Amino acid sequence: MRAAEIQNELTEVLVTEEQILAKLDEVAAQVALDYAGKNLLLVGVLKGAIMVMADFSRALPTVVPMDWMAVSSYGAGTKSSGVVQIRKDLDEDLHDRDVLIIEDIIDSGLTLSWLLENFESRGAKSVEVFALLRKPDAAKVQVDCKYVGFDIPNEFVVGYGLDYAERYRNLRDVAILAPHVYS
Ligand code: 5GP
Ligand code: MG
Ligand code: MG
């Protein structure tokens, strides 16, 4: 992906890779304290959380198990449908685990509130959330997100794992996608 090619597809860089990595160090230090002596399991929500999981897990000072779940609530568009589908289920048994869900972004919060309920019903001892990004609409639904990286404006963003139609995930920064790309 050449710079010139993507430049007119993005309007503004919201969070740089450098800012993200510094924040992940900060959150990892807090999580290490909060989960000392606990049965921590990181659960990444595919595919958007791949970069957060990769960098966050390596910022932790100890070896930690991780698992993945793939759900879909957006399809190819830019607005949540509210219908959550399991595309790939967990491999791990959640019984007595202290689960920390790793998410790229909370927008409507529909996906997360569904996941929280689902994981609790599987016998997890505790379920908390770390979302790298949070949009203002997330305040409208009751999702208890213990760790948040950055509050961002209500724009459709891509990069650092976040896609539009499977593109842009490998951008290092988080940027606003130009509306002409999707409208
Ligand atoms: P929610 O259920 O909270 O509305 O969002 C569910 C999922 O939609 C997020 O985990 C993320 O994968 C995707 N999503 C929400 N907002 C954005 C955005 O601004 N950009 C991209 N690329 N995906 C988003
Ligand atoms: Mg996600
Ligand atoms: Mg997506």
From TrEMBL:
Pfam families to which the protein is assigned, alphabetical: Pribosyltran
Family annotation (SUPFAM superfamilies): PRTase-like (SSF53271)
InterPro entries attached to this UniProt entry: HGPRT (IPR050408), Hxn_phspho_trans (IPR005904), PRTase-like (IPR029057), PRTase_dom (IPR000836)
UniProt pathway: Purine metabolism; IMP biosynthesis via salvage pathway; IMP from hypoxanthine: step 1/1; Purine metabolism; GMP biosynthesis via salvage pathway; GMP from guanine: step 1/1
Domain Phosphoribosyltransferase stretches: 18-164
Cofactor(s) named in the record: Mg(2+)
Catalytically driven reaction(s): GMP + diphosphate = guanine + 5-phospho-alpha-D-ribose 1-diphosphate; IMP + diphosphate = hypoxanthine + 5-phospho-alpha-D-ribose 1-diphosphate
GO function terms (MF aspect): glycosyltransferase activity
Keyword Cytoplasm: yes
Entry's EC annotation: 2.4.2.8
Keywords tagged on the record: Cytoplasm, Glycosyltransferase, Magnesium, Metal-binding, Nucleotide-binding, Purine salvage, Transferase
Subcellular location: Cytoplasm
Subcellular location, principal: cytoplasm
Family listed: Belongs to the purine/pyrimidine phosphoribosyltransferase family.
Protein name from the UniProt record: Hypoxanthine phosphoribosyltransferase
Organism encoding this protein: Microbacterium deminutum
